[in-house]
Amino acid sequence: MISETTHWPSPAKLNLFLYITGRRDNGYHELQTLFQFLDHGDDLTITANQSGEITLSPDIPGVPLTDNLIWKAAKALQEKSGCQFGAHIELNKILPMGGGIGGGSSNAATTLVALNHLWQTNVSEDDLAEIGLKLGADVPVFTLGFAAFAEGVGEQLTPAQPEEKWYLVVRPNVSIATVDIFTHPELTRNTPKRSLATLLDSNYGNDCEKIVRMLYQEVDKQLSWLLQYAPSRLTGTGSCVFAEFSSKSDAETTLAELPDTVSAFVAKGKNISPLHERLAKYRLAHTQSI
């Protein structure tokens, strides 16, 4: 597998609900949230090699190589495993920065999962998730690859099976810093904790939505528009908002109503990550070639 060029999806995610249930003494927030993947995202083309170096393309303006989450993930796996191999990684960037749909975290996770396979480092899923958590709070859900109910500060993951609906995801032209939302004095921080079964059977909401709509007029405008057509809400603390539909055609009909100036896409919810579906195919092909 060294020198083989491979292609890996780096999918988006949605927080189908997000509730803030408390605040710890260290300032971190206790939460309950439900992650689901989308069949839409970035792509990484990875060629493993024997150089020991990690090279990336294209360059991201203003982001030094050593600050790039993809590079950090690759180096962390090298250090964890003692691997002497290297890789060239090319990113086809589709997901917006600061959109709340997991772009950078997903890129880091795809790097970990792909290189663990290509380098044959045999790091366990739990250890990959542990490496990922040091890179970002959302990275473990992408490395593990199943839709998940998250508790604690987001690190306690339980597999979940929400309905795989169709979504229209709209990206208002703003970038939102998570810290600005979580430090806002009017953020709800005392939503009662509930069981996953109760939450799955309730109407979904997002405790951050009120603050984001108050601070960002463009998010409020797009969400108000979507709510005319379907149940809609904010994902995470980012700027993306989404509407849920039972069919692709209904989602695409609503997409067609949006002006061309608005950035949006239609995608299917997935309880198994497209990344892990691709990994299974590569593993099967590798087994058959032996």
Q: What layout of secondary structure does this protein have?
A:
Layout: E1 5-23, E2 29-49, E3 54-57, H1 69-81, E4 86-92, H2 103-118, H3 125-135, H4 139-144, E5 148-151, E6 156-159, E7 166-171, H5 178-182, H6 196-200, H7 209-215, H8 217-226, E8 232-234, E9 241-245, H9 248-257, E10 263-270, H10 274-289
Q: What global shape is seen? A: globular
What Rg do the Cα atoms give? 19 Å
- Give the biggest sheet: 10 strands, mixed
Poorly predicted runs: none
Quickly give the structural class: alpha+beta
State the end-to-end CA separation: 12 Å
Give average pLDDT, whole number: 94
Q: Please count the helical segments.
A: 10
Structure description:
The chain is an alpha+beta fold and 290 residues long. It has one domain: Ribosomal Protein S5, domain 2 (2-Layer Sandwich). It has ten helices and ten strands. It has helices at residues 69-81, 103-118, 125-135, 139-144, 178-182, 196-200, 209-215, 217-226, 248-257, 274-289, and strands spanning 5-23, 29-49, 54-57, 86-92, 148-151, 156-159, 166-171, 232-234, 241-245, 263-270. Helix 1 packs parallel to helix 2 (103-118), helix 1 crosses helix 3 (125-135) and helix 7 crosses helix 8 (217-226). The termini are close together. The model has no long low-confidence stretch (mean pLDDT 94).
